[in-house]
């Protein structure tokens, strides 16, 4: 398995730390959105690692190759790493699920986690399944590794209204436009980062210039419509109002576009990568009978967005 580690597993160092020779504490899972349930597990991981003087690591999957077929992501890869680093994780090991799915459960637990990665503490969900045909579970990890001095930690699920916080539920909220509720479960504002692309300049002629970004097709599907947003440009936050969809009034796009009017910003963002964070849903996307009607609606949307952004500031 050490050769598998060298050839198939990417190692991403998130924090400067001297190499540990005594092993590591490692959390295993998809962590696709690093939501509050994931964060509780990572917090436990970091606590265990510091208590024992071990490095902290996360073993996860490449974002474009999820073990949950068809499930879209709640965070882009760089965002995922950013959050894990902020929680105190030292290293991430990432592998394409297609390269791991045929590894036996015993080879994964004993050969990869224990022997190749030096796991001395393993943190995972109580219902964690792994290995070929998903035959491995927590009981197998314990039977294989506890007599070798490995501690297996399975934190209880984080609950919201009596139900476990899950990526599936958060994806459903996002697809329904309920981004404020999704943000509460994520523990952050749902966002994406993308390069600004050239638009048709229509907004500028109507008095509300916009920046245009292609919405990533790997991310959870967002309900088409208008949102209050925050754009992060060169590390500075700007409020704004964004339309996500296919712009039915002025000609449909081939793929979803996020078109944002940024308040108080007059610079040139073209070809610059910016992060757009979704604060609250305002209304569904719709077709207007004229550009004048569209312009009047945008003015109304701007007022609604300002109200939502002011409420956000009051909660910080």
Describe the protein.
The mean pLDDT is 89. Helix 5 packs across helix 6 and helix 7 (167-175) packs antiparallel against helix 8. The strands form 3 sheets. Strands 1-4-3-2-5-6 form a 6-stranded mixed sheet. The chain folds into 2 domains: 2-160, 3-Layer(aba) Sandwich (Rossmann fold); 188-315, Riboflavin kinase-like (Elongation Factor Tu (Ef-tu), domain 3, Beta Barrel). It starts with a helix and ends with a helix. The chain is elongated. The protein has 316 residues and is of the alpha/beta class. The chain has helices spanning 2-8, 36-52, 77-86, 97-100, 105-116, 138-145, 167-175, 179-186, 202-206, 291-315, and strands at residues 10-13, 24-28, 55-61, 91-95, 119-123, 151-153, 159-160, 163-164, 191-197, 211-214, 225-233, 236-245, 257-262, 273-284.
Considering the chains and any ligands shown, give keywords for the structure:
single chain; about 325 residues; Rossmann fold; 2 domains; elongated
Arithmetic mean of pLDDT: 89
- What proportion of the residues form beta strands (DSSP E)? 25-35%
Number of strand elements: 14
Counted up, domains total 2
Give the helix proportion (percent range).
Answer: 25-40%
Radius of gyration: 22 Å
Helix count from the secondary structure assignment: 10
Order the strands across the largest sheet as they lie in space: 1-4-3-2-5-6
Uncertain segments are: none
The CATH homologous superfamily of the largest domain is named HUPs
Distance between the termini: 47 Å
Largest sheet: 6 strands, mixed
Shape: elongated
The CATH class of the largest domain turns out to be Alpha Beta
- Structural class designation: alpha/beta
Named at the architecture level, the CATH assignment of the largest domain is 3-Layer(aba) Sandwich
SSE pattern, N- to C-terminal:
HEEHEHEHHEHEEEHHEHEEEEEH
CATH topology of the largest domain: Rossmann fold
């Amino acid at each position: 398995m050490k050769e598998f580690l060298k050839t198939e597993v990417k190692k991403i160092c998130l924090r400067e730390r001297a190499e540990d020779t005594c092993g590591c504490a490692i959390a295993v899972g998809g962590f696709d959105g690093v939501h509050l349930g994931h964060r509780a597990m990572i917090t436990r991981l970091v606590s265990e690692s510091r208590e024992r003087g071990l490095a902290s690591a996360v073993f996860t999957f490449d974002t474009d190759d999820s073990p949950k077929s068809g499930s879209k992501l709640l965070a882009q890869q760089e965002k995922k790493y950013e959050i894990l680093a902020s929680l105190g994780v030292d290293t991430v090991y990432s592998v394409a699920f297609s390269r791991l799915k045929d590894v036996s459960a015993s080879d994964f637990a004993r050969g990869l986690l224990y022997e190749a990665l030096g796991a001395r503490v393993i943190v995972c969900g109580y219902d964690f399944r792994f290995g070929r045909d998903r035959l491995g579970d927590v009981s197998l990890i314990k039977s294989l590794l506890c007599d070798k001095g490995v501690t297996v930690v399975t934190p209880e699920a984080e609950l919201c209204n009596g139900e476990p916080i899950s990526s599936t539920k958060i994806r459903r909220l996002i697809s329904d436009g309920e981004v404020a509720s999704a943000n509460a479960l994520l523990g952050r504002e749902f966002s994406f980062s993308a390069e600004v692309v050239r638009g048709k300049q229509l907004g500028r002629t109507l008095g509300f210039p916009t920046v245009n970004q292609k919405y990533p097709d790997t991310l959870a599907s967002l309900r088409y419509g208008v949102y209050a947003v925050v754009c992060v440009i060169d590390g500075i936050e700007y409020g704004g109002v964004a339309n996500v969809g296919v712009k039915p009034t002025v000609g449909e796009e081939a793929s979803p576009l996020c078109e944002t009017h940024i308040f108080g910003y007059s610079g040139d963002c073209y070809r610059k990568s910016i992060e757009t964070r979704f604060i609250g849903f305002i209304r569904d996307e719709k077709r207007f009978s004229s550009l004048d009607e569209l312009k009047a609606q945008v003015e109304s949307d701007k007022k609604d967005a300002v109200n939502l952004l002011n409420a956000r500031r009051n909660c910080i």
